[in-house]
Amino acid sequence: MKALWLIAVDGSPPALRAVDHVLLEAARDAIAPAIMLVNVQAPLPSDVTRFVSHGVVQDYHREAGEAALAGARFRLETGGLAYSQHILVGEPAPTIVNFAREQHCTLIVIGARGLGSVASALLGSVTSKVIHLTELPVLVVK
């Protein structure tokens, strides 16, 4: 069975370092894992969405997700690694975990983000929540 790795990408430098790490790991193996790039967009507040059409909201999420995924796509394409991309809407950590479970991923790869708070002194809050919510292995890349 081929490995299926989910890479959570928000466009940040730590997320791009996670993509770079996957490229290095894939180059070492004879069989590259299947890669799913995932970006999670926060839902817009209802006081905003009630004034615009559903299509406008979908376009906004798609455009923002595409922008967040651009650097990761470029790196994977340059490295010759195939991938699928997925732009989801919801609370980031549970959305990532649920999607990984539904897709039968074998690993979640995510960048670390130091946000300076006591709860997330070493890891970003999304990264910490993903680790706590999933039973899957999680690779955190600094």
Question: What report would you give on this structure?
Answer:
The chain has 142 residues and is an alpha/beta fold. Helices cover 46% and strands 20% of the residues. It has one domain (4-141): HUPs (Rossmann fold, 3-Layer(aba) Sandwich), CATH 3.40.50. The protein has helices spanning 13-28, 46-49, 54-78, 92-102, 125-133, and strands spanning 4-8, 34-41, 84-89, 107-111, 138-141. The protein has a 5-stranded parallel β-sheet with strand order 3-2-1-4-5, sandwiched between helices. β4, α5 and β5 (138-141) form a beta-alpha-beta unit. The longest helix has 25 residues, at 54-78. The radius of gyration is 15 Å and the shape is globular. The relative contact order is 0.22. Mean pLDDT is 89; it is low at 114-122.
